Amino acid sequence: MSRAIEHNEARQRFECTEEGFLCVLDYQLSGTVMTITHTGVPQAVGGRGIAADLTRHALDTARSRGWKLRPVCSYAAAYIKRHPEYQDLVA
């Protein structure tokens, strides 16, 4: 299933709505370094791969824009460890 993930650049986050619940991945951009600070999925819609989809979308966006990453968020850091194809993005 493909989720509609929006890049809300004004709020520096990626977001999607699942069954009325807002799910987000927050970041801070400094120059060309994206620091992923938080991934939030409400418990009511947890366990569906939403955080993974948000993280993958953020990492693909970073790659396409030539950004490096600092995964401060523990979920994002674990995701990158599980997906070595993103290791080259880590600052």
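Next protein, fold it too.
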Amino acid sequence: MTTERLQRATAGLRPPFAVVDLAALRTNAAQLARRAGGKPIRLASKSVRCRELIDRVLRTPGFRGVMAFTLPEALWLARTLDEDRGDVLVGYPCADAEPLRELAADERAAARVVLMADSVEHLELICAAAGPDGPPLRICLDLDASLRLLGGKVHLGMRRSPLHAPDAARELARAVLARPRLRLVGVMSYEGQIAGLADDRPGSPLHRAGVRLVQRASARELARRRAEAVRAVLGLAPLEFVNGGGTGSLERTSAEDAVTELAAGSGLFAPALFDHYRAFDPVPAAYFALTVVRRPAPGLVTVLGGGWTASGPAGPDRLPTPVHPRGLRLLPQEGAGEVQTPLAGPAADALRLGDRVWFRHAKAGELCERVDRLHLVDGDRIVDEVPTYRGEGRAFL
């Protein structure tokens, strides 16, 4: 069992700590590349948040380029990544004038970083910060991927971008081209209602059927609309890339002729939210360990800390999952606590004070916001200890 092997490898460590199983990471990276069907995958750095692992993944066949989550992160990566690893797309718009001015004054960084925009307001902000002189700034349009029904009264998907219709994409492309300092290089869209929503969760068969129905309808609508939007933009200027997808939708998105590259990251760590997809079966690669500090009653233990909850809509699926010893569960009345977390189950009675309980985080890169370093395990030994973004003092959020 993986956690038993990790237990042996980390016997000398003091919890709390986090580990990444490199064998599982390699397996997941290869699986993502196969699912991409030959199209390159741009690594979503927010799902990793560890520079050493970003470098390792970018050396894997099938991966090229990074989707960063802030401009300061993109500047750091662009200045330090080998050029043959690809460029850096900022996955979200930047409204901070200081890093925009920094980018505008750095010719090398400007050639490797792509800024995201979904409105003329973004373009005006970028131009105001950059000024009229200097290297061109590369722009990607963020096309909204949500499914809108009944004239927009029903919205299924991310509340991400106002840029929805192909005509709107064409008009924003014209606005980019009208500004001498800007250069249009890409279009992207993230279909969170497909890529980030498990379609095989335990529970109601009707709910599963409903999720699959919506995903099929959304995929058909988006493929048509994305192709129309890309054609509309290409009628004005050539593009370097059209980015789409996510860990949960690689097969669907790679089949679209309009899409030239994919984005993925969560599938590398395979957190608990990615346990129930029909299309793929990743291997859990990231874990954290906590210490038993109480035995309040038969069938119960308490570990120190544990409130490492994930972002998104509050609910049980955002809580960490105890995985070793098997047979432990969170208490619904208390969940995962900031200082202590009680756990119930048959395995509790075999645990003693000072023993470890292993957990999986619900989301991928957010684990790295809780620890300064990751212990990399290969086989049954630790082969490296590497800093997370937090451990490097990189406060990008």
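About the second fold: DSSP finds twelve helices and 19 strands in the chain.
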